[in-house]
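Subject: for your reference before the review

Hello V.,

The reviewers asked for a structural picture of the protein, and I figured it would be easier to keep everything in one thread rather than splitting it across files. Below is the amino acid sequence we used in the manuscript, unchanged from the supplementary table.
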Amino acid sequence: MSAFDVPDEVARAFRLELFQDHLALERGSADTTREAYARDVARFALFARTAGAAAPADATPRALREFVFHLKDLGLAPSSIRRTVSAVRTYYRFLVSEGHVAKDPSERLETPKRWRTLPEVLTVAEVERLLASPSVEEPLAFRDRAMLELAYGAGLRVSEWIGLRVQDLVFDDQLLRVFGKGSKERLVPIGRSAIGAAAVYLRELRPRLEKGQGKGILFLNARGEPLTRMGAWTILRKHVERAGIEKAVSPHTLRHSFATHLLEGGADLRAVQEMLGHADIATTQIYTHVDREFLRSVHRQYHPRP
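And here is what came back from the structure prediction:
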């Protein structure tokens, strides 16, 4: 691992040392600012690599927006997210000035306070293709199917997804016990498909993966250890590509899709708030704007007097 707590190849590909030198020499940044910016950009580099970008030039504006949603999912304070956005902007300005990238994908990157729309949401048909992606011929197919079913079926944050314990599945009541931000517990109903996929995984595969290092965590990797955030990202990306979905999809995309599909189907806003674990219903209300924004875009595109 490099000094940036990312793999050496990621540090090299994303020119993290050069950026740190730039902060120290060109900008004369204070030690605390330099350390914070270097740490923020290293986190971005790891996220981008996990999401499929081999180098900074491969990161799209959409990927950067997903990164900021990812920071929100981690529970970072708005001030920390704003600082990270500033760090990423500084990073890309440096890369452009040095000729390492031709375009700056962070030019229109907004902070959370200014957001009015959601990141990409999958259609129901796209979700069905994604959930059908794991092939029974693959050794870890039962795990992958259960993971995707529960992540979408319960609208989980990625931290909740990988933190699920075996005992959190309440099969008799068709419920999932979820510990969200601040370790707040909530109970989320899950459907027959998610229950069935989880039951098959627990019966057919998890006992073979468990080698005494599972710590009661539901989803394990091939070595029998709890799945990491990067592991979850890698698995999701594999199945997104296999399903032929061209949208930028993150674990948070499944959570957004869960909420959007419920509300489009007529679900009560406060019920969705409870299932998502939002402390403030205003956070949930953003999902009610999805259809209106879509209609506005259609009107602008097709009406003769937009």
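For the response letter, the relevant points are probably these. The chain has two domains: 8-113, 124-297. The longest strand covers residues 175-179.

Happy to draft the paragraph if you're swamped.

O.
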